[in-house]
Amino acid sequence: MKALKIHERTRLRHIKASVNMNKSWVFQELTKSLSHWDQLLVHSLAQQVNDATKRGDIDEIIENYLPGETAAIDAINTFWERNILASGGLSKYQKSIAQDSAVSQSNKAAADGMRIPAAGPADNSSSGRQQPEKVLGMFKQGGRLRPSSQAVSSGSSQAQKNLTAANLEKKVLNCLGCGKIYDCRAVTTDITRFLERDGVCTFCGDKVPLTQQERQEQLQQVSSTNASCEDGQDVKDGHENDQASGRSKAAVAAEAAHAFKDRLIEYDRESAKRTTVIDDQSDYFEIDSNAWLTDEERKLLRQRRRMEEEAEAAKKKRMTVTIDLMGRKVIVPESSVPAASFTLSSDKIASSAQPSASSSSTHDDSARTSVASYLLPPKASLEEMARAVSSLRDMKITINPNINGPAPTLVPRGGAKRAITGGNSISSIPAAAAKHDLGVASTKARRQATRVQGDLFEQFDEFGLEVLQDEAAAWSMAHPFDLCPPELKPAENERALSLAKRLQAKHLVVEHSSQDHENNLPPGMTLLRGFLSIQRQAELVNMIRELGLGPGGFYTPSYKEGGQLRLKMMCLGLHWEPRSHSYEHVRSAYDGAVPPSIPPILLDLAQEVLLACEAKSGFKQPGPYRPDACLANFYEKTGRLGYHQDKDESAESLHKGLPVVSISIGDSADFLFGMTPQETVAQCVALHSGDVVIFGGPSRMIYHSVPHIYPGTAPSELHSITGIRPGRLNLTMRQV
Length: 736
Ligand SMILES: O=C(O)CCC(=O)C(=O)O
Ligand SMILES: [Fe+2]
Description:
About 45% of the residues lie in helices and about 10% in strands. It is of the alpha+beta class. It folds into four domains: about 1-110, no CATH class; about 140-260, no CATH class; about 315-480, no CATH class; about 485-570 and about 595-735, Alpha-ketoglutarate-dependent dioxygenase AlkB-like (Jelly Rolls), CATH 2.60.120. The strands form six sheets. The chain has a six-stranded antiparallel beta sheet with strand order 7-16-13-18-11-8, covered by helices on one side. Strands 12-17-14-15 form a four-stranded antiparallel beta sheet. A two-stranded antiparallel ribbon has the order 1-2. The radius of gyration is 53 Å and the shape is rod-shaped. Residues about 90-160, about 230-245, about 325-330, about 330-375, about 395-455 and about 510-515 have low confidence and may be disordered. Bound molecules: 2-oxoglutaric acid and fe (ii) ion. Fe (ii) ion binds near residues 644 and 646.
């Protein structure tokens, strides 16, 4: 046993030594025969040859790398044969022994150009069909495939029967005609059909080489065809010359193949510059007639095309409206107004711009022109602005989704507010009022950014209306209402005239207010005629004027419904908000101003009035009475106030019947009052400058209104002293 083992080891050593020798030999031979190759490539080739464990590997190397390299092929074949001889029983080579001689002969013959296929049936004679007994190395299952394609097409049913996926050497094949890949690892109907047809492509009908030899033959055929096509007749002649000069067909073909390869490499290098990527996904192409599409793809493409068409149609219908809040403009570019899709909302703008425009003009050019040129007046009132805003109610706002970052939001110009408030820094505006500031706005902007499309009015309501109000507030702060404008102060010589006018007017008032009920007032209501002297009235006027010009001064309040009160108002102590019918610490819906405090002079006056009230009527008003809100209303000659109850004070205050003390200064006015909501049955008293009305206790909830002002009835002295503008000033104190 031991001796045997030593012998075995020695044998192996010998084998190894001769294999190693063989290895260096083949390397030297290859270096010589492939002297035109890079040394590194030769080395790598020799390594592959040495690593080959079966004849098939050698054949593949020859086929892939060495077409026409006869000397190199000879060296490799010799190397293989020597190794087999040397290895004897070595398992690495054993399996291939039976195949070797046949294949090496075959390769040798190929290298010699003896088996280069020529197109045409005549070539059948040179195919393996004539040596059916030969078992070729590439047919591992011992199959009897004929390596020639022509032999296949001649149709031997026996051969076809033998051709199965299992006995193919290469299981994945590729048609060089159309590129179709045949993966024979899975036996599908198509693969079966392909194999039944002996490798004829089921798509384009080209012959797909199934064997090593067929592949080699096809390769050489392609190379020679390419060479002749590329170089034309000259090359053909040269080719013939080559043949005439003794060069083999294979050598010529190989040369052509090399040239072709070089061109391909060159093309590949340059391709980046030449290649333009066309995304044909986005191109229009025939969906129905395109045979390459699956049903699923066709369905998807149809769907996509439909969406694109819809988007295109929607784009045509879309109208762009520019809302310039600062310039108070609503502009609809004519180019973006499609006549056919002119919408109701744009019609609204048109009619709001031109009240005479009838809806029938919706589709005509004049309507479009009016839309296109709709402008709010530069000093539009809030009412006009609100009308313009509500005309946009049905329109949609689209925020460009391509905007990088938060979408634009409707933010008023903070600078304007600061500039207008002058000495009052922005920090003096309470937090609730500063809600237009960037911090809040950016949160809103973020919210907007996530909502690309929404209801314009919803957004406009939230931002735009506030902006408009803010603008209006800013405007009125920049132009505060002056109770006593200097330019209206009369010259000395006009005083006499104005006194005469006043007397005349007062006479008219008394006449007009024939149903004067001043002596027939309900319990709890008292009229103190001429309670305030001109001097005291003037003091109050001057004081109110000063407050009215400052922060929280006179403004024009609005109702929730959008209409405005027909007076200027300033709240002292607490702000009364007509929109919510409530009292607030700041004028939040307008400019966020904090109302000025009630001057002590007024608080004292209230107490004085209550005493006088009791003294006159014998009715002691409920108390203790500490007014914390005072509304200063100024009615110009057309000013008025509707029939209402003062009921926004606290339940406790109302329940106690804590009185309202009302002071009239300036022009006379009618004051209607009643215990029921019917104004038609209300009583009327004329209130003149200096009069004070008190309604508390059982009269606390009277309905009342100021339907009419008598212009020019204010005391001329008052006018002379204060320069008060024409109109009526009323101060009502309440305890909230
Ligand atoms: O102006 C007036 O005389 C009445 C005012 C009034 O009723 C009010 O401010 O609530
Ligand atoms: Fe009132």
